[in-house]
Design brief:
Order of helices and strands: EEHEEHHEEEE
Helix content: 25-40%
Number of domains: 1
CATH class: Mainly Beta
Mean pLDDT: 98
Radius of gyration: 16 Å
Low-confidence stretches: none
CATH superfamily: YjbQ-like
Shape: elongated
Structural class: alpha+beta
CATH architecture: Sandwich
Largest sheet: 5 strands, antiparallel
Number of strands: 8
Length: 139
């Protein structure tokens, strides 16, 4: 069995950002030499997400607007978590909605994604360095 473990690092310029990482993950699958297996992509911070969806700008903005309605950043005083000196309770909630990780099958050496599926890193409390784990296993 082959395996590859890599870490991707992000420091986004905005509090909330959405980064298409499909190409990077595809490159890691190729580097791993795995032809048939699984690829885990996992946000290693509790205010960031990894998810799969369409890479359409309008949809990405719709997600951002929807998440802000569900868990608005301000006023920060509305969240008990922020009484600890933090201001990111909303980011924890946004991450919970968007998910922690994705697992994608590898078939014939390629990510087995649907026609419009892309892998995204979602940042909900940015402007600091954060990590995503990519773990590839298979034959």
């Amino acid at each position: 069995m082959k395996s590859l473990t890599e870490h991707l690092w992000f420091e986004t310029p905005h509090r909330r950002d959405y980064v298409n990482i499909t190409g990077t993950v595809e490159g890691l699958v190729k580097k791993s030499g795995v032809k048939d297996g699984l690829c885990l992509v996992n946000a290693m911070h509790i205010t960031a997400s990894v998810y799969i969806n369409d890479a359409e700008d309008g949809l990405i903005q719709d997600y951002d607007d929807w998440l802000e309605k569900l868990a608005p950043h301000a006023p920060t005083s509305q969240y008990r978590h922020n009484r600890t000196g933090e201001d990111n309770a909303d980011a924890h909630m946004k991450r919970q909605i968007m998910g922690r990780e994705v697992v994608v099958a590898i078939t014939k050496g390629r990510l087995d994604l649907g026609p419009w599926e892309q892998i995204f890193y979602g940042e909900f409390d940015g402007r600091r360095r954060k990590r995503v784990l990519v773990k590839i296993i298979g034959e």
